[in-house]
């Protein structure tokens, strides 16, 4: 953990407290390796388990790629005002702890809440709790479906919570920008040189409804993308130094008690279409939950990026706040001229906890 972070926490707790501070946490201790595979560009076989963080497994067993520890601090300032910060230390980043969330919330009334600061970009169904492995059945949210390089933003948003008949209704309207001076996915994995990734003029919305067994979530976002590679402006083609993007997403989940079905479909329009989807099915036998999942990424171009993953696994809830998981992943990389990590078969396992 960075000395600056420790110093900030010590100073915060040494000052007279004017609010009730609630602390919660989560952790994942995972390990795994590639069983077999074919690397790309002469490299060894690799399983890219988490795109934004570049969590990669090789044929050597490792517990660093997906292990993490997180703490969330929430200060209740009374009269509807709260402050929230989340610190995460990831094995993929040598456990260098960083503030990933830092925002203020104000409840206008029982239905509406305004927020401002740094938050997770709510593109996907699992975005808000992506790092909390205990919150979902798999080892990780399906990587082919969760591939984008930007996952936080700085801005403002308005949350709505209510109901219509037997349906619960929630919505989120947001706007802002993100300037990632050293984007990990683009810098460390794709371009292999320093890349600054900028998403500006972000404007999006999410609406979600659910009843006893069915949940539906729809989302849309638009933004403008700028990029610098090794300090130089990047040309997206034909002299265009920026490009506009539009994102669409739909998740439909059904829970029949023991049997559950999870689906998510996304599209990113950048001139070419980038389509992703995943389907998962699981069955609960008391505290044991086996599951199967399929995820697919397809770029609408003759030489584009195309890959898919078939996964099998088991979750064992051996404790009220902890779960053991083991998962087998079979990746097929069918990209023509833009191979990502190549074909691979891998095994991962670990324990997720919340506290």
Automatic annotation (TrEMBL):
GO CC entries: membrane
InterPro entries: Gram_neg_porin_domain, Porin_dom_sf
Signal recorded as keyword: yes
Signal peptide stretch: 1-19
GO MF terms held by the record: porin activity
Entry keyword annotation includes Signal: yes
Protein name: Outer membrane insertion C-terminal signal
Phylogenetic classification of the source organism: Bacteria, Pseudomonadati, Pseudomonadota, Gammaproteobacteria, Alteromonadales
């Amino acid at each position: 953990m960075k000395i600056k972070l420790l110093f900030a926490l010590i100073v915060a707790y040494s000052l007279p407290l004017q609010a009730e501070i609630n602390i919660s946490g989560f952790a994942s201790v995972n390990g795994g390796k590639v069983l077999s595979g074919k690397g790309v560009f002469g490299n060894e076989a690799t399983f890219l388990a988490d795109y934004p963080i570049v969590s990669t497994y090789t044929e050597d067993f490792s517990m660093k790629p997906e292990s993490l520890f997180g703490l969330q601090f929430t200060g209740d300032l009374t009269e509807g005002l709260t402050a929230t910060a989340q610190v995460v230390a990831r094995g993929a980043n040598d456990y260098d702890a960083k503030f990933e969330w830092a925002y203020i919330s104000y409840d206008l009334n029982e239905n509406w809440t305004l927020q401002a600061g740094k938050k997770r970009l709510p593109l996907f169904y699992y975005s808000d709790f992506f790092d909390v492995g205990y919150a979902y059945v798999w080892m990780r949210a399906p990587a082919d479906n969760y591939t984008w390089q930007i996952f936080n933003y700085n801005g403002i948003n308005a949350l709505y919570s209510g109901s219509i008949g037997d349906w619960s209704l929630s919505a989120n309207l947001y706007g802002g920008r993100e300037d990632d001076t050293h984007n990990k996915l683009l810098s460390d994995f794709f371009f292999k040189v320093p890349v600054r990734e900028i998403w500006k003029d972000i404007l999006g919305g999410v609406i979600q409804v659910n009843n006893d067994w069915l949940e539906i979530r729809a989302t849309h976002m638009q933004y403008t993308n700028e990029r610098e590679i090794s300090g130089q402006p990047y040309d997206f083609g034909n002299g265009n130094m920026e490009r506009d993007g539009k994102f669409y997403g739909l998740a439909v989940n059904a829970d029949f008690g023991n049997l559950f079905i999870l689906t998510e479909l996304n599209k990113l329009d950048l001139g070419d279409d980038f389509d992703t989807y995943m389907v998962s099915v699981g069955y609960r036998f008391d505290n044991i939950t086996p599951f199967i999942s399929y995820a697919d990424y397809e770029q609408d171009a003759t030489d584009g990026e195309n890959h898919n993953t078939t996964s099998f696994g088991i979750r064992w809830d051996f404790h009220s706040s902890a779960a053991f998981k083991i998962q087998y992943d079979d990746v097929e990389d069918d990209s023509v001229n833009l191979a990502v990590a190549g074909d691979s078969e891998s095994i991962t396992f670990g324990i997720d906890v919340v506290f």
